[in-house]
Amino acid sequence: MNRLAFFCVSILFGSVLSSCGGQPKVQDVPVETANYEEEEYLIGVGDELDVRVWRNPDLSTEVPVRPDGRISTPLVGDIVAAGVSTEDLARSIENQLSQFIRNPQVTVVVSNASSVDFQQRVRVTGAVMDPTSMAYRDGMTVLDLVLEAGGTNEFAVPNRTKLYRKTATGTKVYPVYLSDILNKGQLETNYPLLPSDIITVPERGF
User: Fold this and answer.
1) Whole-angstrom distance, CA of residue 170 vs CA of residue 27
2) Domain shared by 96 and 130, yes or no
3) Could you tell me if 165 and 171 are in contact, meaning their C-beta atoms sit under 8 angstroms apart?
4) Is pLDDT at 133 greater than 50 in this prediction?
5) Going by C-beta distance under 8 Å and a sequence separation of 6 or more, which residues neighbour residue 134?
6) Domain range spanning residue 143?
């Protein structure tokens, strides 16, 4: 066997060995974490808004977002606010006001973001001691959240844990080998969390 052939066989043999035994390598990991940028805040029900119309103090107002997701402003009346950004809401109000005044300039500021807590929470459900929903904190990981929930209970199947994450293309599901994290110190799937993440620890069948 010449040197080149021996080298090729060695590489092939090493590849076979690396693919045998042990835990399967996670192929689909939540890479969104690395490129995560905080999303534009969307107004929610219960938020307090400060709507200012330039040079028209009589048209400016402070209003809460009602349970139906709308606010009411002078001349414009009811307008949908929940689920849109302050910039988009300002443009919508300008479009309505343009029927009454020339070149309206509107700014909208969220003076009390009471809905933000629900948008910025992370949750763990299933076979944990205390299923919980808590405010997201920068730097949180899967393990942090599971420990906050008191760890897994006696019925858990930790290595079948899943992380559910909302993305621009829909909800994605990632495997979490929680038993390996807790018992073997294998941290490859101890992913950093993002707001709105949900971790689910399944129970074994009986």
Assistant:
1) 19
2) no
3) yes
4) yes
5) 121, 122, 123, 145, 148
6) 118-201
| Co-location of 106 and 122 in the same domain | no
Residue 196: φ, ψ to 5° = 80, 0
Q: How far apart are CA 152 and CA 188, in angstroms?
A: 19
Q: What is the pLDDT of residue 206?
A: 62
Q: How many domains does the chain have?
A: 2
Based on the fold, state whether residues 185 and 170 are members of the same structural domain.
yes
Indicate if 149 and 196 belong to the same structural domain: yes
Q: Please indicate, yes or no, whether residues 165 and 180 belong to a single structural domain of this protein.
A: yes
CA 8 to chain CA mean position, Å? 46
Residue 151 falls in which region: left (phi positive, over 0), alpha (psi -120 to 50) or beta: left
Which two tokens mark 48?
């307090």
Residue type, 122: V
Whether 79 and 73 have beta carbons less than 8 Å apart is answered as yes
Q: What is the rounded radius of gyration, in angstroms, for the C-alpha atoms of the chain?
A: 26
Q: What is the pLDDT of residue 23?
A: 47
Is residue 13 assigned to a domain?
no
Averaged pLDDT, 162-169: 89
